[in-house]
Design goal:
Blueprint lengths: L4 E9 L2 E4 L10 E6 L14 E7 L28 E8 L2 E15 L8 E7 L1 H7 L8 E5 H10 L9 E4 L5 E5 L9 H10 L4 E4 L4 E5 L1 H5 L5 E4 L4 E3 L10 E6 L3 E2 L5 E5 L6 E2 L5 E6 L1 E2 L2 E5 L1 E6 L29 E7 L3 E8 L5 E2 L11 E8 L4 E6 L8 E5 L6 H15 L8 E5 L4 H9 L5 E6 L4 E16 L2 E10 L25
Helix pairs in contact: 2-3
């Protein structure tokens, strides 16, 4: 048996970790999970990871006040509150391994002085921050790889929403245009997912809080971390056709771009706004297709030096009257336009002595607009791969939002169909006891989403089947550690590699990659 202990640490003050392990109940389960749910070809971006544990909240020990973990109690520990960093640390042979990192999101104390006096605590990892944070102050991405897009998205977020560290592979695809569809209130995780799915990349969070992105090529070359041979506690293999597909359609999105930066990307509509003296007016506007005002588009080469009335083809005008019949006040307006991928931020300042209406002369039409080159998704292309199978037709639709290469579209369809048209050599999850041996303990301490393992199991007939780890779930009671690995078929990433035995027999050991 391999013995392990766990530490529960929080930051009660910025940058200083405090160990609260002596208040953690060991006879109640501590559960932690991170990674990607599902094992299909497009299950490649992690959802929110969470760790849940229980603390003592009684006053039965010297120096321990009742209610010390109740956030609104006067006896609450200084610094104990929602949003502070937390980590779960496993200690084995004197070495610490961080198995979960996140922030406290749920603190639920029992009520009643004669009750259990416990607090149920839940921490979420950085994927929750990414899922809740809007991304809009970022420019359209020109000739960027999927890795560069993700890096730029993260950099555009508030510091509090960024991961504490990143480990991002070099990208394998380059997109002429991306982020042309994000709008004003799209969440950062949604944009990251679009970039990852456009390249079949894998995005997840490690136990120490590092956000990882693994390219499809890196995953193809991954070495197996550990081999299980009839020694898992449980193994789940497919028992139906839910994850089987013999008709795969992949859609890519080549973009159409205006020839000149003269298209009106945004124009003020509706009621005429007024700009008060000394109180700047901030307006956010979406870029819209001139032929379909309901359709969002991207913009590039945006002209942010707006042209004032009365110059020909002017972009804005100001008047002392709401119907444009008063005195021209355009010269008293200053406008700062900041262009982003599919939105523009306009800060309008009134430097005059009277309120100014943004209206065209002698009309009731609002006058404020921004011009540039529109980026349009007008011609999606779909590629298909199919084989005839005894079970009939099982179809899968895959969308690659930023991909524009037809060769990759067709290759992806052929590749996925080849790998998912049968149930052979697949495992969905594996459960093992970390305490059973030194080797299993090392596996539990080190395994992360994105790693690879090998599985053999006599009854199910799996022989040296390689699987990619999608997720890692831990359950701990009295330092007994049960680890569950969510798995996806690694054969999906068995690309053909020139001259490498076992990886170059096209159609036998590998399929054509992309």
């Amino acid at each position: 048996m391999a013995d392990v202990t766990f530490k529960y640490k929080v930051q009660l003050s910025v940058g200083v970790w405090t160990d609260i392990s002596d208040d953690a109940l060991q006879n109640v389960s501590t559960s932690a999970k991170r990674g990607v749910d599902g094992n299909g070809p497009m299950d490649c971006v992690a959802g929110t990871g969470q760790c849940q544990y229980t603390l003592r909240n009684d006053g039965d020990r010297p120096g321990k006040a009742m209610g010390r973990y109740s956030p609104v109690n006067a006896a609450c520990l200084a610094g104990w509150t929602f949003g502070i960093p937390f980590k779960l640390v496993a200690v084995y042979l004197g070495v610490e391994y961080t198995r979960f990192t996140g922030k406290l999101r749920v603190i639920y104390p029992d009520s009643g002085v004669n009750e259990k006096l416990q607090v149920l605590v839940t921490a979420y990892d950085v994927m929750r921050d990414l899922a809740e944070t809007d991304i809009r102050e970022i420019g359209i991405q020109l000739n960027q790889t999927e890795a560069e897009i993700v890096t730029n998205v993260l950099a555009a977020l508030p510091t509090a929403s960024q991961p504490i560290a990143t480990d991002i592979d070099f990208g394998v695809d380059t997109y002429p245009y991306a982020l042309d569809d994000i709008g004003v209130s799209v969440k950062a995780l949604s944009v990251i997912a679009d970039a990852a799915r456009s390249a079949f990349s894998f995005v997840a969070v490690k136990g120490d809080g590092t956000l990882i992105m693994r390219s499809r090529h890196t995953r193809a070359l991954a070495a197996s971390l550990y081999t299980f041979a009839d020694d898992a506690e449980a193994l789940d293999v497919p028992a139906d056709l839910e994850g089987v597909y013999n008709l795969v359609r992949v859609t890519i999105h080549p973009k159409t771009i205006d020839a000149a930066a003269t298209t009106v990307l945004y124009a003020l509509t509706g009621a005429v706004p007024v700009v008060q003296v000394g109180t700047p007016l901030t307006i956010w506007g979406d870029y819209n297709d001139p032929t379909n005002a309901q359709k969002l588009i991207g913009g590039t080469a945006v002209v942010t030096a707006l042209v004032a009335y009365p110059t020909a083809s002017y972009d804005y005008a100001g008047n002392s009257a709401i119907d444009g019949t008063g005195s021209d006040q355009t010269a008293n307006l200053s406008i700062v336009a900041t262009a982003f991928a599919s939105t523009v931020k306009l800060v309008v300042t009134n430097n005059g002595a009277v309120p100014i209406y943004l209206v065209a002369p002698s009309t009731t039409v609002p006058m404020l607009r921004v011009r540039g080159k529109g980026v349009y998704d007008r011609g999606p292309q779909t590629f298909e791969a199919m084989t005839v199978q005894d079970y009939g037709t099982r179809s899968l639709e895959i969308d690659m939002p930023y991909q524009d290469d037809p060769d990759i579209g067709q290759s992806a369809a052929t590749f996925v169909e080849n790998q998912y048209d049968s149930l052979t050599r697949q495992a969905r999850s594996l459960v093992f006891k970390a305490n059973k041996s030194h080797d299993k303990m090392l596996c539990a301490l080190q395994v992360e989403p994105g790693d690879r393992i090998t599985v053999s199991e006599t009854v199910t007939g799996l022989v040296l089947v390689e699987a990619n780890v999608q997720s890692v779930a831990d359950d701990i009671i009295e330092n007994v550690w049960t680890c569950t690995l969510g798995l996806a078929p690694a054969d999906t990433f068995a690309f053909w590699q020139l001259g490498i035995a076992g990886a170059s027999e096209l159609g036998e050991t590998t399929v054509l990659g992309f």
